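Long-time lurker. I teach an intro course on protein structure, and each term I like to show students one example going from raw sequence to a predicted 3D structure in token notation. This year I'd like something fresh instead of my usual example. Would anyone be willing to generate the tokens for the chain below so I can use it in lecture? Attribution to the forum is fine with me.
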Amino acid sequence: MTDPLTAEDIPVVWCDGWYRSEGEIGARRLLESEPLGVFCANDRLAEGFLTAYRATGREVPRVIGFDDAPIATALQLTTVAIPWQAIAEGVRQVVTQQLSRAIRPVPACDAMGLSYMPAPIIRFV
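-- Reply from a regular --
Happy to contribute to a lecture. Here you go:
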């Protein structure tokens, strides 16, 4: 029986930016470890990772992005979708509420926090 993986066992590759080119550089750093799967901080980094890995001719590991940007659909990339519509509606409500307070005196209120759950979008590459 093997010991379970810990966070220290999982390689983390930092990229200097958020674009495809940085994902390609990050992929080259991961090649030696031959990962079974990769989570990218956004879909553009995932695109770069996929591009660089495919260029090696090796079998591409499972890749998960984050954003659900249009490139995720084009690549059939599994990703985690940010609920932009719900966030925009929440911002609209907060701004409307704050503007109405500026127009007429309203008793002070406590700070308000809004939370939104991202949703997995399962696609297979």
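Some talking points for your students: The chain has a mean pLDDT of 88. The first helix runs from residue 20 to 30.
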